Amino acid sequence: QVQLVESGGGLVQAGGSLRLSCAASGSIFSINVMGWYRQAPGKQRELVAAITDDGIINYADSMKGRFTISRDNAKNTVYLQMNSLKPEDTAVYYCNADITQYDGRRLLDYWGQGTQVTVSS
């Protein structure tokens, strides 16, 4: 069994900051890519940022400069530091990972349960 557990969401005023965490646990040999996506009500899920195990990072253009993704490979944990939050950042934020298990199985697009971020104006 593999789990991705997000934490750190909540309610914050515009201009504030939040730090999301996502910890992967279970039968995990390695994790290639870990990332964050978000889905606002009535909208499609979109990429926020992703990071490979050797530190290559990809941000959605609209997130550059305000959001910072980082990763602790030893802890199988990915973080998302969100600054200067805006009401339009309100969404459910999902952790996503590309996992290889000890038995060689590959879990592509493995998702966490999501954490709500609400930014008030």
Description of the structure:
- The protein has 121 residues and is mainly beta.
- 0% of the residues lie in helices and 60% in strands.
- It has no helices and 11 strands.
- Strands 2, 4, 5, 6, 9, 10 and 11 form a 7-stranded mixed β-sheet that branches. The protein has a 4-stranded antiparallel β-sheet with strand order 1-3-8-7, with no helix packed on it.
- The mean pLDDT is 96.
Shape: elongated
Helix content: under 10%
Total beta strands: 11
Sheet having the most strands: 7 strands, mixed
What is this structure's SSE topology?
Elements: E1 2-7, E2 10-13, E3 18-26, E4 30-39, E5 46-52, E6 57-59, E7 67-72, E8 77-82, E9 91-100, E10 106-111, E11 115-120
Parallel strand pairs: 2-11
Antiparallel strand pairs: 1-3, 3-8, 4-5, 4-9, 5-6, 7-8, 9-10, 9-11
List keywords for this structure.
121 residues, seven-stranded mixed beta sheet, four-stranded antiparallel beta sheet
What's this entry about, in short?
This protein is mainly β. The protein is built from no helices and 11 strands.
